[in-house]
Amino acid sequence: EVQLVESGGTLVQPGGSLRLSCAASGLTVSNNYMSWVRQAPGKGLEWVSVIYTGGSRYYADSVKGRFIISRHNSKDILFLEMNSLRLDDTGIYYCARGGGVYQLDHWGQGTLVTVSS
Amino acid sequence: EIVLTQSPGTLSLSPGERATLSCRASQSISNSYLAWYQQKPGQAPRLLIYGASSRATGIPDRFSGSGSGTDFTLTISRLEPEDFAVYYCQQYDRSPMNTFGQGTKLEIK
């Protein structure tokens, strides 16, 4: 059974940094496209970033230059390093298997990031 | 960037009725790379349909997807109480920039 468990979300001040983690079981992170999707309070879903099996990384324009997606291959962990955080980065961050030309077929439960002074 | 527009914004129906949700794309989606997700309050989204019409594992057959090009539909043949939720469409044709529709809220009438 595939399980994805996010962690690392917390309250952070504008301009601050945070690293989210997504621990995977039942799948090998490096053998799958893996994505981050976020959801602002009361709003819809927004794709944030994807890392391909070959290591290519892509970002939404709203986070490009501020966020970095990476993975720890031997530990099956996906990361999202978030820098220069802004108020509109507030929301629940989900990791999911898929992205690119693949549907998002497994999702974690999400971790809440709150950017506020 | 492909913009997805879902309609209606809110759909009020009763259990047992048929629900028809629409997703329209600003450009043609090739390979039918369109998915539908269900999200209940406090929960993560769940994949229902991929490839425009293929049901994901464990999804009841009352859920069906159809369409091609720019017009796609999610149909729930007979609504069960647990089907009332928010539904999102997503295109994964123009990768890596996947985009979601704004969602349709299906509420109990």
Describe this structure in words.
- The complex is a heterodimer of chains A (117) and B (109).
- In chain A, the strands form 2 sheets. In chain A, strands 2, 4, 5, 6, 9, 10 and 11 form a 7-stranded mixed β-sheet that branches. A 4-stranded antiparallel β-sheet of chain A has the order 1-3-8-7, with no helix packed on it.
- Chain A contains no helices and 11 strands.
- Chain A has strands at residues 3-7, 11-12, 18-25, 34-39, 45-51, 57-59, 67-72, 77-82, 91-99, 102-107, 111-115.
- Chain A is globular, with a radius of gyration of 13 Å.
- Chain A has 117 residues and is mostly beta strands.
- With 109 residues, chain B is mainly beta.
- Chain B has strands spanning 4-7, 10-13, 19-29, 34-39, 46-50, 54-55, 63-76, 86-91, 99-100, 104-108.
- In chain B, the strands form 2 sheets. In chain B, strands 2, 4, 5, 6, 8, 9 and 10 form a 7-stranded mixed β-sheet that branches.
- Classes of the chains: A mainly beta (117), B mainly beta (109).
- Chains A and B meet through strand 5, strand 9 and strand 10 of A and strand 4, strand 5 and strand 9 of B.
| Integer average pLDDT of chain A | 97
Order of H and E elements of chain B: EEEEEEEEEE
Rg of chain B is: 13 Å
Strand content of chain A: over 45%
The count of strands of chain B amounts to 10
Helix content of chain A: under 10%
> Number of DSSP helices of chain A?
0
How many individual helices of chain B? 0
Note the main sheet of chain B.
7 strands, mixed
Overall geometry of chain B comes to globular
Number of E strands of chain A: 11
Overall 3D shape of chain A: globular
Oligomer: heterodimer
**Rounded average pLDDT of chain B:** 96
Structural class of chain A: mainly beta
Low-confidence stretches of chain A: none
